[in-house]
Amino acid sequence: MRDCYDVVIVGGAVMGASTAFWLATNPDFDGSVLVVERDPSYATASTALSASGIRVQFSNTANVRIGQFGLEFIQAFPDLMEVDGDRPGLGYHPGGYLFLANTDEQVRILRENHAVQRAAGAEVELWDADKLKWAFPHLNTDDILLASYGLKGEGWFDNTGLMMGARNKAKALGVDFIADEVVGIAREGNRVTGVTLKSGAKVGAGTVVNAAGPRGGKVAAMAGIELPVEPRKRTIFVFDSADSPEGTARVNDGRLPLMVDPSGVWTRPEGRYHLVGGVPDPDVTPAYDDFEPGYTEWEEQCWPALAERSPNFEALKVVRYWAGHYDYNTFDQNGIVGRHPEVTNFVFQNGFSGHGLQQGPAVGRAVMELIVYGGYRSLDLSDMRYERIAENKPFLEQAIV
């Protein structure tokens, strides 16, 4: 490890690894990069504990286009990440996403989102209850007013594979990764000058990138910057169904999608099993090290919603469960990307509120472009700028799962 780096990235999960990858593979950048990761096992990283989905069904154009690029990246992954003949794949499963609405307000949101998605070229259809019942015969559609189904560009994949592929490629190209924790950020006026590590080492930095996930607010505070990002706990249950409906769909070769029920509960197949999760009530801010699953959510929230939606989900058995953290943006539930307007060598990639894994490739590329070129050259993510917080101009994302 050097005494000073051109770029120090705080956090080595999908956001930090992606940014490191893009910097390392850009021939226009010849600087040094250090990635500091507090837990190299990634046992509690949001990346490793996510449900690993990718979709285009969002409520704003930026997120739709980020999703579209994410799929391109996944499909090109073996070529992009090849190291010494090893070509890692991500096992992409094109299952699609299915959003259900049973209130007038939910219908309005689906229609508005659909207009945005179609304008961006996403292949998404709106279905009435009859079409929904035909496509997925196992569902109870009596209360459904409208459904939104992604025909292409949506599914799930290997979450840790994405992170580790980018990390390994970046390391092979000279990026330094260390197991340590940033506990302080030095600042002189309107510039950050370096970081202090838990080990006691001090490292100079030309640019500091905040890729700390749910700890993003804590890291920003070290530089005297307020950032409305905090952890929110989400529990995922894996269950076995005595009469699984997987294979019964009349679309997508029988495969079931990731379905988002009007209740907010979501479920998707995973091999012979299924995953399910929801939003806890109340949705409180946990301690950074609190990963105790919300056990009661199964009985009180998930199972009742599943059983009401399909008779195939009445006889279920939980086989495992875990909890992870969203890096939740309390301001508008959308990513914060870009330089701080005053401390311009402090760069954000924070607050993705549950969709950071799929957005890592595009956001990492965007942050690389800011560092190397001073502006965006591919996707324009200026709507995600930090300044919107001070201006009290939310850039809302309504399609949070």
Describe this structure in words.
This protein is an alpha/beta fold and 401 residues long. The chain starts with a strand and ends in an 11-residue tail after the last helix. The strands form three sheets. Strands 1, 2, 8, 9, 10, 11, 17 and 18 form an eight-stranded mixed beta sheet that branches. An eight-stranded mixed beta sheet has the order 5-6-4-13-14-15-12-16, with helices on both faces. α2 crosses α9. It has ten helices and 18 strands. The protein has helices at residues 14-25, 61-75, 77-80, 104-119, 129-135, 159-172, 216-222, 296-309, 356-373, 387-390; strands spanning 4-10, 33-37, 53-54, 97-101, 124-127, 146-150, 155-156, 176-179, 182-188, 191-197, 202-210, 229-241, 258-260, 266-270, 273-277, 316-329, 336-339, 346-350. The longest helix is centred in the C-terminal third of the chain and has 18 residues, at 356-373. 48% of the residues are buried. GO terms for molecular function: oxidoreductase activity. Keywords: Oxidoreductase. Residues 6-370 form the FAD dependent oxidoreductase domain.
Quick structural gist:
With 401 residues, the chain is of the alpha/beta class.
